[in-house]
TrEMBL record:
<comment type="similarity">
    <text>Belongs to the X(+)/potassium ATPases subunit beta family.</text>
</comment>
<dbReference type="Pfam" id="PF00287">
    <property type="entry name" value="Na_K-ATPase"/>
</dbReference>
<dbReference type="InterPro" id="IPR000402">
    <property type="entry name" value="Na/K_ATPase_sub_beta"/>
</dbReference>
<keyword id="KW-0813">Transport</keyword>
<keyword id="KW-1003">Cell membrane</keyword>
<keyword id="KW-0472">Membrane</keyword>
<keyword id="KW-0325">Glycoprotein</keyword>
<keyword id="KW-0406">Ion transport</keyword>
<keyword id="KW-0630">Potassium</keyword>
<keyword id="KW-0633">Potassium transport</keyword>
<keyword id="KW-0375">Hydrogen ion transport</keyword>
<comment type="function">
    <text>The beta subunit of the gastric H(+)/K(+) ATPase pump which transports H(+) ions in exchange for K(+) ions across the apical membrane of parietal cells. Plays a structural and regulatory role in the assembly and membrane targeting of a functionally active pump. Within a transport cycle, the transfer of a H(+) ion across the membrane is coupled to ATP hydrolysis and is associated with a transient phosphorylation of the alpha subunit that shifts the pump conformation from inward-facing (E1) to outward-facing state (E2).</text>
</comment>
<keyword id="KW-0735">Signal-anchor</keyword>
<comment type="subunit">
    <text>The ATPase pump is composed of two subunits: alpha (catalytic) and beta (regulatory). Interacts with alpha subunit ATP12A; this interaction is required for the formation of a functionally active pump and targeting at the plasma membrane. Interacts (via N-terminus) with alpha subunit ATP4A (via the P-domain).</text>
</comment>
<dbReference type="InterPro" id="IPR038702">
    <property type="entry name" value="Na/K_ATPase_sub_beta_sf"/>
</dbReference>
<keyword id="KW-0130">Cell adhesion</keyword>
<keyword id="KW-0812">Transmembrane</keyword>
Amino acid sequence: MATLKEKRTCGQRCEDFGHFVWNSDTKQFMGRTLERWVYISLYYVAFYIVMSGLFILALYVMLLTLNPYTPTYQDRLTSPGVILRPDIWGEEGLEITYNASDKKSWMGMTNILNKYLLHYNETHQIESNRHCPSGLYSIQKDFRGPHHTKYACIFTREMLGSCSGLEDPTYGYPEGKPCFLIKMNRIINFLPGKDGSPPYVKCTVLEGSASNQDLVDYYPVNGTFDISYFPYYGSLAQPNYTNPLVAVKFNSITKNVEIKIECKVVADHICTDNFHDPYEGKVVFQLKIES
C-alpha cells in the first residue's frame, strides 16, 4: 500500500519560501543569479523602449495626416440643427408657458436671453471681429487674423431690433408679445445658400388658430441669415466667431390657449424633413401665454 505524502507544516513552508527568495548555496535571488537579473532587466528595458518608440512614431505619422483646422471626415452632419432661445424643456420637448401678469414666471426666460446676448454687445464685437460686406460669402484662404487665425464678421444685438433687449429689456413678455432667438448650429465649410441667396426663417402655427401668425416680426429684415457669416472655419481658426441670429416676435398670440409653432430655416442646402432628427433645419415648440 502506498504511503501518504507527509503534510508539511507552516514553518517548513515558510522556510522553503525563504530558500526560494535567497538561495545562499547558489547565490540566487528568486531563482536567478545577479547576472541573470541584469540580463533580463536590460532586455525588458530595451523591449519597452523600442515599443514606446514605435508607438510614438505611429502617432506622429498619423498626426501629420490630420488638419488641425478642418476635420478629416464630416459625414455626420450635412445640414445644421436649429436651436431656440429661451430653451425651456418639458416632458414633450420645448414647452414655453408663462403668465404675462406674473413677473416671476417670465423673468427666468428674459434672463436667459440677456445672458445669451452678452457676447453680442457692440463693444465686444468690435474688439474681436470686423465688418464684412453683406451678400457675399466670407471666403478666407489665408490666416490673416491675429495669432494665425481667420477673421469673423460682426453681429451685434442692435441688429435684432425690438428683440435686442436694449430698448425693451423684457423682450415683450409682459405684453404677451414674446421674442425668440433662432440659431443654426455650426458646420465647418458649410455654405447654406444657393447662388448667393441667404437662408431665412419662417414660422408657422402647426396646432392652434392661424391668426397667431398674422403679426410676426423678424429681425434682421425678412428673418435672413446673411451669407457673409459663412463659411465657418472652426473654433481654432475662428476663436471669436459668433453665430448669426434671427429674432422672431409674435404680436398676436391668443391668450390661455396652447399652440404649437414650427420655425424652419428655408434654404436650398438645408434639410427640414429628416424623420430621425426633428431639429435638423427647424425647431418646434409649444407656447402658452396665460393672462
